[in-house]
Automatic annotation (TrEMBL):
Residue span(s) of domain Ice-binding protein C-terminal: 190-213
Keywords for the protein's UniProt record, in alphabetical order: Signal
Protein name: PEP-CTERM sorting domain-containing protein
Pfam families in UniProt: PEP-CTERM (PF07589)
Protein's UniProt keywords contain Signal: yes
Source organism: Novosphingobium umbonatum
Signal peptide positions on this chain: 1-22
Superkingdom: Bacteria
Alphabetical list of InterPro entries matching this protein: Ice-binding_C
Length: 229
C-alpha cells in the first residue's frame, strides 16, 4: 500500500505540473494602439492611485486565471504595484456590490518605449465559469502620472474609468490593451498526459500484487493453523 501511495502521489505531482504548463491566453483585448493613451481626469487625478480602469472579457469555458497583462503610459515616475479586481458585472452599475476577487500584486514591468510599459501579473489562481466578466486595474506608480493605453478596437462593451470611491467620470471610453492568461479547467481535468496514465497503472498494479500476496499469506497461515490443530 505504501508503494501505491507513492505512485499515486507521483502521478498527481506530474499531473499538476502538466496542468501548470497549460497556461495560455484566454482573452486578448487587442492592442496596444499606436501612440494612443487615455487620461481624461475631468478634475480628478490621473496619477498614482487616482485612476481605475475597468474593461470586460469573455471566457468560452470554465477556466482558471493565472494572471494578466496590460499596457500603460508613463509621464514620469516608476512602477510600484498593481491593484486588480474581477467583477461579475459592469462596475459602472454594480460598484456598490463589490468585486468577486481583488488583490494587490507586484508585476513585472517591461519598457516598450520611452514612456510606455507592459505590466505582467502572475501567480493568480482564480476559477471562473464561462461568461463575461470585468477586469479592474489600478496602476500604482511612485510619483508622476500614468494612464492606460487603448487597444484600438472595441470588443464587447467599452471600458470605464473611476476614482477609488467609485465616481465614474468616464463611464464609456476606448477599450484597454490587456490580455487574460490561464487554462481551461475542463481541459486540464480531462486530458492526463501519457506519463500520468503510466504511473497510475503502475500504482494499480502494485495494489493488485499486494492484495494477491496478502491473500496467499492468509491461506498459508490458515493451512498452518489447521495442521497444528
Amino acid at each position: 500500500m505504501k508503494k501505491f501511495a507513492i505512485a499515486i502521489a507521483a502521478a498527481a505531482t506530474l499531473f499538476g505540473a502538466n496542468a501548470a504548463q497549460a497556461a495560455t491566453t484566454l482573452w486578448d483585448n487587442g492592442g496596444p494602439a499606436a501612440a494612443s493613451n487615455w487620461c481624461s481626469s475631468s478634475g480628478y487625478s490621473c496619477g498614482g492611485l487616482g485612476w481605475n480602469i475597468y474593461d470586460d472579457f469573455s471566457l468560452t469555458a470554465a477556466s482558471t486565471i493565472s494572471g494578466f497583462t496590460y499596457n500603460s503610459y508613463y509621464y514620469s515616475g516608476s512602477y510600484n504595484s498593481t491593484n486588480w479586481s474581477i467583477w461579475a458585472s459592469n462596475p459602472v452599475t454594480s460598484f456598490a456590490a463589490g468585486p468577486l476577487f481583488s488583490g494587490n500584486s507586484i508585476g513585472t514591468n517591461t519598457a516598450t518605449g520611452s514612456r510606455t510599459a507592459l505590466t505582467t501579473v502572475t501567480g493568480l489562481n482564480i476559477s471562473l465559469a464561462s461568461g463575461t466578466y470585468w477586469l479592474g486595474i489600478q496602476n500604482n506608480a511612485n510619483g508622476g502620472l500614468t494612464s492606460y493605453i487603448t487597444s484600438g478596437q472595441t470588443l464587447l462593451n467599452r471600458a470605464s474609468q473611476s476614482t477609488n470611491s467609485g465616481i465614474f467620470y468616464n463611464p464609456s471610453i476606448s477599450d484597454a490593451a490587456f490580455t487574460i492568461q490561464g487554462s481551461l479547467t475542463s481541459a486540464v481535468a480531462a486530458v492526463p498526459e501519457p506519463a500520468t496514465w503510466a504511473l497510475m497503472i503502475l500504482g494499480f498494479g502494485v495494489v493488485a500484487h499486494a492484495m494477491r500476496r496478502a491473500k496467499a499469506q492468509a491461506k498459508a497461515q490458515s493451512r498452518g493453523d489447521l495442521a497444528l490443530a
